[in-house]
Amino acid sequence: MVRNAIRNAAALAVAAVLLSSCVHKYANPIAKQTDQPDKVLFDRAIDDLAHNKFIQSRMELTTLINTYPDSEFLAKAKLALADSWFQEGDTHAMAQAEAEYKDFILFYPAMEEAAEAQSKVCDIHYDQMGKPDRDPLEATRAETECRTLLAQYPNSKAAPDVEQKLRNIQENMADREFRTGSFYQKKGDLFAAANRHQTLVDNYPLYSHADDALWMAAQDYQHMGDRFEKQETVNLSKLVREYPLSVHADDAKARLEELKAPVPEADQLAYDRMKYELENRGKVGIFSRFFGEFSNRPNLALAAKSGTPQMQPMRPSIPASVPARAAGGLGTSGDITASVAADASALDTNPDARTAQPAAAGTDAGATAGAVTAQSPRAVETDAVRKSAQKAGTKTAAKPKPAKTAKPKTPKKTAKPAPAAASSAPPAPAPAPAADSNAPPKP
Fold first, then answer.
1. Of 9, 79, 292, 298, which sits with the fewest C-beta atoms within 10 Å of its C-beta?
2. % of the chain with per-residue pLDDT over 70
3. Burial tier of 213 (Cβ tally within 10 Å: 0-12, 13-18, 19+)
4. Residues whose CB is less than 8 angstroms from the CB of residue 282 and which lie 6 or more positions away in sequence, other chains included
């Protein structure tokens, strides 16, 4: 009997725990004990939301928002409406949740819950992120939303968690570039492989295989010929300096000595960070590798656990095989902006840029702009004299009027006689000839 009673009690306790785990508690509960109609509606909607009655909960929240626009629970009602879509979980509900969270941030940007809403938007895309060899759309949008939270709400409670998610996202995106570069290298397309590896190490230094990417990029430049020895030296030096615990560090030093290039010292901060990462890096077991092939989610066990993630979107590097003239050495390589000139006489006083000689390939754009007056002083002086003369001439000298030429006189036309007025009456008959007295009479 005692054993049966204990078993029944244990079964009831387990059932209670399971039932309680199925109920979603709202993150911001509000004390009840009130008779206000808007508060009653809000409490009823939160209770329905906790029991996964999403449609009924949204109807009550919508009634509260439309009926009581000045209610003190309006902001929390909007947030709860977004939470109802988020907890529902399907694709359509996630799209509606993102729209509701964005609407809440738009109306209440200064509230503490705005950071929570932005973190939920980041989670929506983070949970839909696929493997590196899949469509990177969700990963790109998740990266953008996480950056937005860290930029607008850096001191929020969700900032540390979102920062780690951003490192995970960038690990996934960097792995995509690494796989693509490895594919090109195995195929024998060294130019494409070097470009992919160079883009990876320039944009994602926290990637778990960034040292491998640097070593592979250096190998690509080595096989491309002596013309790319400078790029090879730069990558090998960066590998020795920023990844001192890499398995390729000794080989990189030997290669630098072979190229008669200086071998840099290891950075202490980079050494400490890499040591921490190696000690705290997750492990990918045999079962994880096997079952991971059947999963839609990426394996992020090797993602970095420290360091500041990249806060700028990925910008592909210009391939080393592209000449400097074609890569933008003569033009602009930055962002183009337009603004109102403070000095209205700048066009009249500054030298004409069209008179400057084009700079040589590979020169700095700032040096090119500064060399306008140094390279062609005579052209600048001539242009300034011409403009000042034109300006002075327009102020003092009046524009000469063209001389009038005498036009030949044409003879006067004689007046033509006016035509007789036409009458509407029929013409009069001709007069009959006079009768001859000697003529014989007509029969």
1. 9
2. 68
3. buried
4. 301, 302, 303
